[in-house]
Task: structure prediction
Amino acid sequence: MAITKATASSIAPAAKGDLVVGSATNDAAILAVGTNDYVLTAASGEATGLKWAAAAGGGWTSIASGTLSGTSVSMQSISGTYYELVLYINNPYVNTATGLLVRINNDSGLVYSSNWVYADTTAWSNMSGKTGVNWWIASNASGALPTSTSTLSGFMRLPNYAASTGYKVFQLGGWGNTANWGGGAGGIGLSHYEGGSGAITRIDILTENGTSTFSGGTYALYGLK
Amino acid sequence: MTTIKIHNCETGEVIERELNEEELAQQKIDEENEKQNKKEFAAKIKAKAALLEKLGITEEEAKLLLS
Result:
């Protein structure tokens, strides 16, 4: 049977966006429009078998964020449900100049290698057999963090972090800042961790000498679904 | 005061506490490692400068040769 405007109006006279849906055999009901940007989802527990709900999954989810303080910040119990993680550090500075390390699963063995091209160099700088991922957010040529507030920042990408086998490889970016480099110089890096084959569930951000403390800066960890 | 900030990503709970014995021991190891790294870095810089002097060229000239 063709449904005319008059027929449709007789069974669905309600508001804009309403849907006429089957609620049982030979029975129909009105499902009112949902919240803006919600999507229609099957829901057997509902009288109409449908409901409006926020779209699930997709995009980046904030996992942890805060201010850097103490000698280290330890992000623990990281869920393995994401495709990859990305860690941002912004404006970090310390009370005594030292480098920045990232340690995986609290493993302090000589199981990390990092390679960087930074400042005005053209060759890869190789830092192998270290106790953490060396991260180039520096205020001098030896890779030390600044001792006063700055605009330096960096990111670390951790793809395939939840894999239960194989080494983990990371992509890094950072910014250094000294007068020698005309006020600033970027760096790109690759690093890998070969300490264990399990999923990464813990990431520590720490001062390289272990005794310097963070005076400021922020961290943010996101997961991609 | 040496402290660690622990962020539980599952619950969102954040605590900051003083380092325990195990962490303090690791801190000493990290401190020694950094000293060693600094020594190695300084030695590398010194060796580079000595080589440039031996070759009679500046760092910029060496970069030109390698570019």
User: Anything to note?
Assistant: The beta strands of chain B are 3-8, 14-18. The first helix of chain B runs from residue 21 to 55.
